[in-house]
Amino acid sequence: MKELELIKKLKQHSSLHGETKNIIKGIGDDCAILKPELNSYLSITTDTLVEKIHFDLNFISAYDLGKKTVLANVSDIAAVGGTPLWATLNIAFRNGLNDNFWNDFINGICDTLQEYKISLVGGDTVASSVLTINLTLIGAVIPEKWLRRDAAKVGDKIYVSGYLGDSAGGLKILNLNNNEKLDIGDSDRNYLIKRHINPSPQLELGKMLSSKGLVACAIDLSDGLATDLSHVCEESCAGAIIFADNIPISRETNNLSKLLRISPLELALKGGEDFELLWTANPSIEDEMLKEATKILGHRPYYVGQITEGKGVFLEQNGQKEEITYQGYEHGSYKTN
Amino acid sequence: MKELELIKKLKQHSSLHGETKNIIKGIGDDCAILKPELNSYLSITTDTLVEKIHFDLNFISAYDLGKKTVLANVSDIAAVGGTPLWATLNIAFRNGLNDNFWNDFINGICDTLQEYKISLVGGDTVASSVLTINLTLIGAVIPEKWLRRDAAKVGDKIYVSGYLGDSAGGLKILNLNNNEKLDIGDSDRNYLIKRHINPSPQLELGKMLSSKGLVACAIDLSDGLATDLSHVCEESCAGAIIFADNIPISRETNNLSKLLRISPLELALKGGEDFELLWTANPSIEDEMLKEATKILGHRPYYVGQITEGKGVFLEQNGQKEEITYQGYEHGSYKTN
Prior knowledge:
The structure is a homodimer. Chain A is of the alpha+beta class. Chain A has two domains: 3-141, CATH 3.30.1330.10; 149-323, Alpha-Beta Complex (Phosphoribosyl-aminoimidazole Synthetase, Chain A, domain 2). In chain A, 35% of the residues lie in helices and 25% in strands. Chain A has ten helices and 14 strands. Chain A has helices at 3-14, 62-79, 99-115, 166-175, 186-197, 203-211, 225-236, 251-260, 264-270, 286-297; strands at residues 23-25, 32-34, 41-50, 83-93, 119-127, 132-141, 157-160, 217-220, 239-243, 277-281, 302-308, 312-317, 320-323, 333-335. In chain A, the strands form three sheets. A seven-stranded mixed beta sheet of chain A has the order 8-10-7-11-9-12-13. In chain A, helix 2 runs parallel beside helix 3 (99-115). The longest helix of chain A is centred in the N-terminal third of the chain and has 18 residues, at 62-79. Chains A and B meet through helix 1, strand 2, strand 3, helix 2 and strand 4 of A and helix 1, strand 2, strand 3, helix 2 and strand 4 of B. Strand 5 (119-127) of chain A pairs antiparallel with strand 14 of chain B.
């Protein structure tokens, strides 16, 4: 694809939501000019994805790569209880990727932006020898009510929104050599790969937890429960205990773990990119929170542990306690937010 | 430098201006949370710089690279008449760069952010095989008064803020082989290289032109007068004529051009990265605009041409007219804003 066609496609998308999203000027000037919403704060998150570090084009289609680029950032907005509004997209592209690739990739990006009613307002496209994608999302949060990592209180119960370890399981299947046969059914295989490739950020849940004012502390599970909860504990100057028996693990991840002879708990605690939400709740508001969250999730959230005094994250299993602070997944990357 | 030290340094910087810059939460959560200024719009610009495409570490020090990364984005904010407030910085780093490099680079970034009172509020750092830097700047502009590319009117006079072609001249000197001797004095050499390495974005000028309401149309000269004015003409549905004799060219660029036997006009029209401002003004407000601009620049702005009916950019020289539409500098990149 000619670079100018790529730009044209991005511009077309950017004009879709102009009026409804307070875009005074989108693509086409030195800056995008945007009108912030009254009585809102801005929430900003940015991710860089590098080929072979964060994704492998043997395992993910161009369309799904575009989609996941957006979803991972939407999950960060979900974690603060925000509403995503605007995106900038920077692409450092390499040779050797054909028109179909770029078409599919841009469609993946644009379809997903559209799904979440996000407008593309700018970006930059440059040549490189390594495909590198940078997406920055700007959203709106409610002042005083946005969800933060540093607001967990001793005695709070810890909840997560869905099964943990599925994404890591999907990645394990994708990483198998062609020679390694795995006696797993198509349905399990497809479910786990889908959970890795097409995660579902918990945007509605985050917005509800924020707007109802029931909850103050949340994080999205991008680096595994052990690491992400460690962030919450460190920022909140508290500790946490996780009950192994309470961790929600899907039938499919349990099946896979048996086949691979690994512990499903390892996947659930240390596997990244589940993009579920973790939040903490004072027991006094638990009933209302559970009712509202269940409406959105279609199932009850999972109670997995408790915020404690002290520091560090511990796993309680068979009456034993084991420290698991920061034992999470690393992409070979760390983030400043 | 350990990655965590790098992050620590960035965090230290980010906390410097927190209170004065409406930062509710900077680095350390899923999103940065920011309070937009009342009665302002946001202006957003983003650049990706790739090693060997946009910079060569043989020619630019780590400190100056950090500095220029910020300056190029500040220039985009200047072009809309904005005030830069917040930055996110994404670094894809490669092996083989030592602690001194990272120290100097981060100092270059942070010193320059501080000079412009910009706060670093987030980012991402990842491993790669190619050093790739992405900076996104968010600023504030005055609604209805921000400067745009699409507001030039037929009959407007075209002004630029400073000498053109110096940066391209500096780059030519840097690109000479060791074998190519150039009989240029140290003072000329240093001036031109400095204009390439340490450009001075015209932030105060842009803010004045916007806030006084005298001017509606501006662009920063990052890709050369011929290309940047072509953007203005295309967006404004107009044409332009440039008078060759009026183009401001420094003594140093004239000297260099003689030595290299090239036309100084080529450097001025097609050389990139001068980061001067170009704006158009109705003759009726010319006197006041010139008075105010002269106060800021310390010299009168340069009147270089006129907005005309029709389309395309033409150069008038020795009574002849030649089309120069989009004959500018390309980094091998194009931008979506």
